[in-house]
Amino acid sequence: MKYKIKKLLRCENGVSIVIVALAMSVLFGFTALVFDVGSLLESKRRLQTVADAAALAGAQKFAETILNNGTTMEAEASAHNSAIEYITKNGIQEACTTISIDQQNKTVTVDVYEEQDLAFAPMIGFSKGRKEAHSKAVTGPIDSCEGMLPVFVTGGEKSGVVSLRQGLPPPDNPGNFYALALGGTGNQNYEEKLKFGYDGLICLGQELTTETGNKPQGTVNGLQYRIDKCTELHGGSCNALSYTPGCARIVTIPVCAGSPSGRDKVTVTGFVSLFIESVTMHGGEAVVNVTFINCITAGHVGGPDQTADYKTWGVNLID
Ligand SMILES: [Zn+2]
After folding, report:
1. Ligand 1 center to residue 230 CA distance, Å?
2. 277 Cα to the center of ligand 1, angstroms
3. CA angle 254-107-50, nearest 5°?
4. Where does a domain end: 126, 159, 186?
């Protein structure tokens, strides 16, 4: 009996050692997996960030080229170069990268992969991990935007310095602009929105309520505030061809259809960007000198079949 117990104990000891050995290797394998999977996920996240930024850089360059009157072929080439430059600057080989550009839909797609040596997984039979990232950015005319000024024009493409005058007939005169009641009504609201922009979203096809009457003093106060901001922050050195990004003198406003009177509604047909040259009071009217500019803004890019293109484009990630 004694012997049997001893034998059993010996036997159980043997089993224990096997169990411990198995448990350790499972534990080790598990630790290796956790470590390597963790490091793969971390570098996969980094790869995704690089792919996103490269797609955006490519789309931005595509837009810049077209808005500077380049051809679509030139836009494609510069978008490709810009995306590749971003990829290689971040230590990823060009050979592991595929950039595809759709001229029609104005998209830049980036596919990139990397192989990574694993630290512990080779001991359980895996030596390399592969990570992939896919990203797609689009550019083109915007179909919605925040931060609009409470004014609109009825025509959107002009060159040189244009004198905009407030609310004068005929209403389809593109040299006119009209006040909008955005996020409120009245003089004070109008002037505030001119200074700081309307923080709600304005979309293509949306109906907007016009603001009653001309507001020459509000127009002068609001727009002069923006010119003064540029003087304060950029020494007033900005102009329509060269300006500090985000300058208060660069504004985006809706282009609308309709003949407003009173609080009539008008319909948004597009968006146009302006550089505010000057604002003066002239015979009781506000005269605003602006230059219509081609501009990339923070707005949302509309569909490729969008007709009104007043050269105010956005750059968005879509995939
Ligand atoms: Zn400025």
Report:
1. 4
2. 11
3. 110
4. 126
For residues 205 and 101, state if they share a domain.
Answer: no
pLDDT score, position 6: 54
- Decide if pLDDT at 269 tops 80: yes
What are 272's strand-pairing partners? 253
Ligand 1 centre to CA of 145 (Å) is 21
- What is the residue whose two structure tokens read 């282009």? 255
Q: What domain range is 21 assigned to?
A: 2-126
Report the C-alpha gap between 144 and 153 in whole angstroms.
Answer: 16
Residues 178 and 261 in one domain: yes
Kindly give the distance from the C-alpha atom of residue 112 to the centroid of ligand 1, in angstroms, as a whole number: 38
Global pTM reads: 0.83
Q: What is the DSSP letter of 70?
A: -
Whether 86 and 163 share a structural domain: no
Q: Do 13 and 83 fall within a single domain?
A: yes
228 CA distance to ligand 1 middle (Å):
9
pLDDT in tens, 207-252: 999 888 778 899 999 999 999 999 999 998 999 999 999 999 999 9
Q: Are residue 167 and residue 244 in the same domain, yes or no?
A: yes
- b/e map 72-88, b = 16+ CB within 10 Å: eeebbbbbbebbbebbe
Report pLDDT for 15: 73
Ligand 1 centroid to Cα of residue 22, in Å, is 70
Number of structural domains, the chain? Answer: 2
Are residues 101 and 232 located together in one domain of the fold? no
Q: How far is the CA of 189 from the centre of ligand 1 (A)?
A: 24
State in Å: Cα 229 to ligand 1 middle. 7
